[in-house]
Amino acid sequence: MTQPTPSAQLRAALDLAKRGIPVLPLREGKGPMGNCRACRKNACGGRPNMKTPGPCACPSPCHAWAAATTDLAVLTSTAWASAWRQAAAVAYHPGGTGLTVVDLDNAAAIGWARQNLPATRSVPSTRGEHWIYLGTMTSTNAVRPGVDIKSLMSYARWLGPGTGTMTPLPDAVRALAVKEPTSARTATSAPTVSAPAGGGQCPHRSPAYLERGIAMAEQRIEDAPDGIHRTVFWMFLAVLSAHGRCGCLTETHIGRLFTAAQTRGESLRHCEDAWTNARTQLGM
What are the pLDDT digits (tens) for 50-63? Predict the structure, then answer.
């Protein structure tokens, strides 16, 4: 029986895996494949909480960065075939290969890095650049405007080998992940989105109904064990579907939701995108 020709993404992944770089497929939109049914709610044992890359106990790719592997047999297995057919790109686990990626999301962030960080290998990204250093650290989003750090327990899109000499991870980058303690209810960045205008009939019997809804969404975001992007979107969607058409939702309520998301490492841009996407899905 003739074997199907591997996709361009799978061929690239196999080449990287042979070089010792743990890889995983990304769907359209640069997000990881969703958890397989067997791994819903961490049924496989909570692989995301472990600090080594590799496949889950289940046969399918899941849990984002923890699915990254260099095992060619796993990458070409029948269980992974569907994921590679759907894959739009390839990602890798920087921490799993001893690296840290400073993701510079725009020209302003690149300008800041050139003035404050030592030069290292870089590769152009969709809107900015990835600066790659030798060494690992804790991954942290939104360490400053337009700057994310991807290393341990995170993934980065593979954009090519880059140019320049890779240098050791400097203290200046490590220091970016050290933040002063803040209250979980103090916003790290103020949202620029607006509350829906409303105008529909209010179904709430009391203000306590809205307060419970906001508090529940905050708690779900704070307690999410993994898949924080997905959790934030669904909680925004749930709040908007219940409270977005009657005019009861205020900028203060939105600020509380954004604060909960940013406390879990979401950037302001990701929060605003999730809010906009939720409104679009509801036709608001």
Answer: 444 444 556 666 66
